[in-house]
Amino acid sequence: MPDFARAQLRRQRINFGLFLGPALVLLLLFFVAPVIIDVVLAFTDMGRTLAVSNFTLENFERMVTRDTRLLGALGITFIFVLTTLGVFNVTFALLLALVTTAVPRRLGAFFRAVWLLPRMSPSVVYALLWLWVVDPNERGLLNQIVVHVFDMPPIDLRNNHPLLVIILANGFIGASLGMLIFTSAIRSIPEHLFHAARVDGAGSLAIVRHVTLPALRWPISYMTIHQTLSLLVSFEYILLITAGGPFYDTTVFSLYAYRRAFESGEYAYGAALSLILVVIGVVAALALWR
C-alpha cells in the first residue's frame, strides 16, 4: 500500500476514534451494557443479599402463574400510554404548533417559551404544583375555583380519579416536546406552497389539511414512536403525585417493576419485568414504524 494511502487510512481511523469514539463508549455503557445486565439478571434468583445461587426460569413462571398484579399493571399502562399519547403528546402538541405558527412570530415564540417552563423545571417542583392544584381541601387551586366560583363542594381528584390526574400531569408537560418538533417542521415547509394554496382559493383549514399535515407525516410518526417508548418507561410524576395509588390504581408497569426490584428487594424479578417491558417497547416501535 502506498505511503499516501496508509496515511489517509490512519487519519480516517484517528478521526473515527475522535468523533465517534466517545459516542460509542457512552452508547455501550448506558444503553447496551444495561440491557445485557438486565437479561442476565432476569434468569437468576438475585434478592436483597445480591447473591446469585443459580440460573432459573422461575421469574417468568411466576409472571404467568402467580403474579396477580401483573395484568392490572399492564392494563393501566395501556390506558395511560394510549390516552396521554393520543390526546396530549401528539394531538394537542400538533394543535399548539399550528396555533403558535399562525399567530405573529414573537407572540408564538413567547407562548412556546411559557409552555416550556414546566419542562425546564425540576420534576419535584412540577409535581408539587400538581399536588397543590388537586389538593382535596379548599386551599387547592382547583377547589378554590370550584368552591368560590361555582359554589360547589370540594372535589378530590387525586383519590377519586387518580388516573386522570397522572394523564393530565404527564400530558401537559409531554405536549411541549411535540410542540417544538412540529413547529420546526411547519417552519421548514416552503412558503410558496402556502401562497399557491391561497391563490387557488384554499382556506385556512384546507391549507392545514392539504399542505401542512402531509408535510408533517414523518415528524408525527417520529413523535408517536418516541413518546410511546417514553411513556412506557415513565413513572417519575406518577411516583411523586400519586405514589402509584390509591392502592394500585395508578401503578403502571414500569413503576411496578421498579418497586419489585428496589422496594421489595426482588432484583431478579424486577429485571425480568423490565425485560418484558423492553420486548413490549420493541414490538410497539416496530408496529408503529410500519
Characteristics:
2 domains, mainly alpha, 77% helix, 15 helices, 290 residues
What report would you give on this structure?
- The chain is mainly α and 290 residues long.
- It folds into two domains: 1-29; 69-289, MetI-like (MetI-like fold), CATH 1.10.3720.10.
- The protein is built from 15 helices and no strands.
- Helix 4 packs antiparallel against helix 12 (217-233).
- The two termini are 46 Å apart.
- The model has no long low-confidence stretch (mean pLDDT 90).
Q: Categorize the overall geometry.
A: flat
Secondary structure tally, helices:
15
Taken as a percent bin, the fraction of beta residues is: under 5%
Cα Rg: 24 Å
Helical percentage: over 70%
The fourth-level CATH homologous superfamily of the largest domain is MetI-like
CATH class of the largest domain: Mainly Alpha
Fold-level CATH name of the largest domain:
MetI-like fold
Assembly of the depicted chains: single chain
Chain-averaged pLDDT: 90
- Strand pairing plus helix content: what structural class? mainly alpha
- CATH architecture field of the largest domain: Orthogonal Bundle
- H/E element string? HHHHHHHHHHHHHHH
Report the end-to-end length measured between terminal Cα atoms.
46 Å
Strand tally is 0
Major sheet attributes? none
Poorly predicted segments: none
Task: Tell me the domain tally.
Answer: 2
